[in-house]
Design a protein that fits this description.
With 374 residues, the protein is α/β, with parallel strands linked by helices. The chain is built from 14 helices and 13 strands.
Amino acid sequence: MKICRVTQAIYPYVIGGSPTHCHELSNNQSTDHSSVLVLTVRRNNQIDSPTVNYDLKQFGWMRMPWDVAGMENPITPGLWWHLLRTDYDVLHAHSHLFFTSALALITNKMKGKPSVLTIHGVRAVRQSSVNLFQELWMQLVARYLFKLTDRIICLTPADAHEISHYGVPPEKIQLIPNGIDTTLFHPQDTHDGYLLWVGRFVEEKGLRYLVDAIQQLTPTNPNLRVVLVGDGPLRPHIINQIHTKGLDQHFELHRNCSQREIAALMRNCTAFVLPSLQEGFPKSLLEAMACARPVITTSSLTDIVGDAGITIPPKSVEALSQAILTVLTNPATQHTAGLQGRHYVETKWSWPIVTDQTNRLYQTIVQGAHHDDL
């Protein structure tokens, strides 16, 4: 099968859950008797092209006012033109919030090809002006894209429920979770005693509540260490918050790490903390679980975490502080929750399982399209 994937970002040129998902899914599908072409936006020319199993083409983009304002949403005429001239069996676009997906799905409809759209979180929590723009986009653009698409992949039941409010019928939705490389992210017997957070420095990740929780804990836990990995618009604000509260000695920051570096950090941490206000299906959480590390996150992810950690109400500094203390002071809890997390990932979220589910969905809609042509 010839698969064409369109995404606004791909790992390693952009670090993040969705770019990594697209890279790893493409690699796994390319070794599974399929050819995969990935069309994306050209970014970060300082990074050498990695060795991949799929064909990757990157296109320049037009800088628009919203990009300068921190709402990066690339418009790529070259990508659209290349897609128009490309032969493939199925188009798979990623995220309904970007012009790349919108242009790809509209072009694909013109070509009469079957299509799939993956929802990587229905919306992002940002400042009020961005949130207003997102809701307008959902009402005016996303509704139309949902109608153009043959199937919509949701990573979580919560996302499936939310997009149903935008006119998506249940029979059009397929639940397929995120995938994890269980050979790269694996357990080890020892750890280095620190807490780990990995993600984008944006409001929805709840980082400022983590800093406040650490401030509460350090008077009685002077050796407490937290490692933060990632980049994003709020990074300077979080650094300033850490410095203002006199917590510099308790935090270690890394900007961008490779998957191998993140895997090593996951294996060596005592617990993984993700106090998000809103999430889709965060890969970082699954990566920590794959490394048999207990996780602390918010109640929106209870269905994913199960017995692999502790979930708390969003924005609750007190609950977050208590959860951190509970995990750090209970080695038995660390061990039991870690083993349960590893079991969950191996049986539900390894890439072979996720790739097979995705390929079977392709086969269903491609066969349906051929049947309609008869």
